[in-house]
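Fold sample X.
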Amino acid sequence: GPITDFQLLSADEVFLTSSLKEVLPVHSVGEHVVGRAGPGPLTSELMEAFASRARELSSQAVMRLSEALPS
């Protein structure tokens, strides 16, 4: 179900995800600072995993494109 205000405000880490923002750490909710006001260990790990996979897929796409183009 939906996240409650209590869960959100008592979380050690909060992040948003989207195709444009990838993994975006949330530093505060209103006046309330989340965790240590920076990416926590889980958020940092997810950010790196997402970036790594994006680089991998980009490299594969460039290779396929270069193979498809006439020499």
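Fold sample Y, listed below.
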Amino acid sequence: SAALFPALQAGGACATISCTITYFKPVFTGVMQCRTKLVNHGKRISTLSSEIWNEDRLIATAHGQYSTFKR
């Protein structure tokens, strides 16, 4: 959800509706990197998609839906 914060309006917040993680391979060494895209930012619901990489290997994907609202 941290990737969603720059898209929120001033005073905005978010809460997780759902998050699905699919693991493909184990990691024992090396540097891991997460690349996240804001797929859709609606009035009340936003969707994020992430890929987790270890060097040049795709390790996992994650897809999440978040409720966005003002505090």
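Sample Y note: The beta strands are 12-23, 32-41, 45-54, 57-70.
Also: The chain has a mean pLDDT of 92.
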